[in-house]
Amino acid sequence: MDSTEFSKQKGEASFAHRLLEWYDANAREIPWRVPPHDHAQGIRANPYHVWLSEVMLQQTQVATVKDYFHKFITKWPTLDGLAQSDQEDVLKAWAGLGYYSRARNLKKCADVVVAEYDGKFPQTFEELKKLPGIGDYTASAIASIAFDQPVAVLDGNVERVMSRHQRIEAFFPEAKAAIKLILNSILDDNRPGEFAQATMDLGATICTPKRPACAVCPINEDCLGFKNGDAENFPYKKPKSEKPTRKGAAFVIINAKGEVFLCKRQESGLLAGMTQVPTTDWNSRQDGSYDTSEAPIEANWGKAGIAKHTFTHFHLELTVWKTNNINTLPVNGWWCNIDKLSDEALPTAMRKVIEKAF
After folding, report:
1. Closest CA to 287 of 233, 334, 247
2. Annotated catalytic, 54?
3. Each residue of 305-338: pLDDT tens digit?
4. Is there a single domain that holds both residue 120 and residue 17?
5. Which of 68, 170, 356, 357 has a CA between 20 and 30 Å from the CA of residue 277?
């Protein structure tokens, strides 16, 4: 069924009305969101908050993002404040959230908006896409939620809702084009941002990946997946290829004060510019040595275990080597008190390495 047939069958108002009526009563309470009642009173979302949350939500769950969002807006209440910050401070605040290119683009985007747009985000999808780190999804989300522009917003939750509702028998990502056409034909022009958030909430709370609660879904009366009893089979996704496992070594050096030696990764490649303990030369395509043959200093190394971490495209296993009572800096770097590690720009993989050593 194409978008025109769908609109004619039930009418745009029917789908949107049912969805928004449900949303008005069941909207999730999220820190960056304006509740439906407040929106009806003319209160609009803060574009800075919408942008920040959407960048954080890429590849990350809402529950994880909430604390990071609060941390950022407490430290940098305004976009101008973020633009004036040091990138190292942004990376430190982002540490543990993953996908660190997002943090670097966050700073670049803030700089551009302040310098070229007088500190105000552009309101259209086309202009938003010109900004660093903003792709199709983020641009549509900001345009819709912050500025009530009538554009389709398509995240994983929305994909699931619409592919089940229309029984779209096409694999993702190819099916996205068909879903966008449908969404553009049925979204509520008066409340496009809330229509987008309502569809996201429906996917997050009712039309869940497993065991969707179809019986209480506000749009179940014309949901083809529900009628056919196979909603859980959608969306169609191609089988994922098996991730390779890469290996390497990490070296935890502790001085007489109990401080840990830290250094900075190179400014390009995986985890670029982040803080780490010294490691061997591993990456997503190759192993590094995992013995002490490439240790940064000669020392009495003891094996502390294996730290495991999964990145988007590969698994990583780092053999952790530890040595104590070292007081000479082995390479360019610094000593950090164990109680101050949370203030460093340590990615999760490195935090796991250090935990193995203590």
Report:
1. 247
2. yes
3. 999 999 989 999 999 999 998 877 767 899 999 9
4. yes
5. 68
Bridge partners, residue 263, by sequence: 276
**% of the chain surpassing 70 pLDDT:** 96
Look at residue 13 in the predicted model and tell me its pLDDT.
45
Check pLDDT > 90 for residue 237.
no
Based on the domain organization, do 78 and 156 belong to the same domain? yes
Of 270, 273, 298, 274, the closest CA to residue 284 belongs to 270
Catalytic residue among 54, 159, 259, 344: 54
pLDDT confidence of residue 14: 84
The range of the structural domain enclosing residue 39 comes to 3-237
- On whether both 205 and 349 belong to a single domain, the answer is no
Q: What total number of domains does the chain contain?
A: 2
Measure the CA–CA gap between 57 and 79, rounded to whole angstroms.
Answer: 18
Cα separation, 267 vs 272, whole angstroms: 5
If you average pLDDT over every residue of the chain, what do you get? 93
Q: Provide the angle, in degrees to the nearest 10, between the axes of the packed helices 192-205 and 156-165.
A: 80
Which residues, other chains included, contact 159 with Cβ-Cβ below 8 Å and sequence gap of 6+? 172, 175, 176, 179, 203, 235
